[in-house]
Amino acid sequence: MKKTWVDEIKFDSNGLVPAIIQDFKTGQVLMVAYMNREAVLKTLSTKKAHFYSRSRQKLWLKGESSGHVQKVKSISFDCDGDAILVKAQQIGGACHTGYRTCFYRVLDSKKKWKETGKKLFDPDKVYKK
Hints:
Layout: E1 17-23, E2 29-35, H1 37-46, E3 50-53, E4 58-61, E5 70-77, E6 84-90, E7 105-107, E8 113-115, H2 123-126
Parallel strand pairs: 1-6
Antiparallel strand pairs: 1-2, 3-4, 5-6, 7-8
């Protein structure tokens, strides 16, 4: 059987590969999630980021609950083929806590975590908890 481009990705023993999602304009890292083969193929075909939820054991579209989708601009992988970089246009917040990025806490000089940025949305309202 002939190898395809997706066969060059080194999925782990659970069939997953880490995916770093980066803002295509600013370079800001928005989030890290996992993709399986189906998520990679669906992301490519729809141009919207799809991931595999390890906790729910299912494929999911980023923004399926919140509407905060990621419009994919490019997909690349690292030299070892064991991590994917997705450059995307983020609509709304990337983080389920309401922030633009999941990396909204910075370690300050006093070794304390400091929240940076403003919340873009109220997760209780968006996810109706």
